[in-house]
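G., the chain you wanted modeled:
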Amino acid sequence: MELGARLMEDFGIEVILDEWEIGGGDNANLFMNRALKEAVRVVMVCTEEYVRKADGGIGGAGYEANVMNAEVVKDQGGRRFIPIIRQSGENAAVPTFMAGRIHFNFSDDEKYEESLEKLAREIHDARPFKKPKLGKNPFLGESNQDAESAAGPDGDSPDSDPLVVYKKALSLANAGDFTGWRDLIHTQKIAAEAALLLWKKENQSRFPNLRNELIEYFRPAVEIYGGLFAAAVAGIDSEDPRFHNQLSLIDWIRKPQGWERSGPTMWVELPDLVFFTYQAILGAAAMSRHRPELAYRLATTPLENPDNYRESKALFKSRWAMGWPNSLDHHCTVAWNFLRTLPGAWEWLSKLLRSEQEALASIGAYYLFLNTIDFVSAVKSAKRNGSDLREPVVPLGVVVLSREVKARAKSIFGESADFFAEVFVENGIGIEELEPLWENWIHVCLKWIGEVYRDPILLRHVELPHSTLPRMIKGGETNLQID
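Predicted structure as tokens:
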């Protein structure tokens, strides 16, 4: 408590501490989960007893350690977690899952003030020794090395490998370097727009005649934006929450400079197919990293209607944006099959989302998330109008995934159960009425699937991975209104 008070009063650092935040009747586990998600930095005070309980899974420290272990895994390569040592022995110890992290030693009371200032500087990213700025290479043009490098304002060629862009974007975001971030994003945008125009020029004369050929035809065009996609994922992975929201790229993606707005619809609206892919990857990354609040922000962001720019709808209600892109013949099953091919075709995407199967499961979990937001909207509409639940807007292609991938998608989605408990309460859906409403919704969704797929074998074994959501719910509250 003294440490928290000093950080707040003397160094201007907002501190979340259970003694100040919760009391009798509060849910301590929910508080720990929420605090870990909200905090920009997490300070772990490692006493001998805490380390023993954390490693042994004992009591509140053991529960907290299990939760933090998952968070630390997501934070690998980041600096969000800061262990500090407060111990009597000479051999400083930290919980096993924090091994290898640089720590601050608060064990010597005589050096407490010095240690406190070092910690505060670290939290404020105000370390006394600054890395000098990189100067220009005086031997530029004389090297035999390949000239391909990340673009900057001096005009170098932009990186074409999304994994390279991801690493550079993550480094810039973790350093809080907005100028470098904007330069990287701007360079990737300019390069992508030029490459897309070139791709169109080279390929528009061989437009496919069959619907099932559209996936292979358009996928290389969409991958041109792989660098921007990877940078957006880096924003989500950043330890700086100011980079988490990458919705500002929407207009850049949907309205590339020099793009002709006349001709066949499949060509004209190719940028919307790029955005469809972008939102799926961004949503999958948010689910993979267990950040439902970012998936929610994406799902509910308003988008202009391509056919009427005076009208806007939330993403989860915009069919063209998340399920029926016109470049894929305005067909939800073609669009879903397009998404299913991406992890296998784009190795960099599988690596960003940990593996091909994990990427597919994360995409599936995101669409289960969208479908649940859709459920809330449908319930509120039915209550207002005194009508039955409408059919879903969000497509449910997740049902065609393999059993193993669906099981993993359910597990990833299940991480958002507490989040949805809060959404339901905030939107007037009581826990006691949730189960019958959800059962009705699953029935409506299965009926929709039957009408869309008309596949007797599929329908005989069809199951929606999130059908047991009411049993996952624990409860909570927040400001998450859905229209």
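The chain has a mean pLDDT of 87.

Shout if anything looks off.
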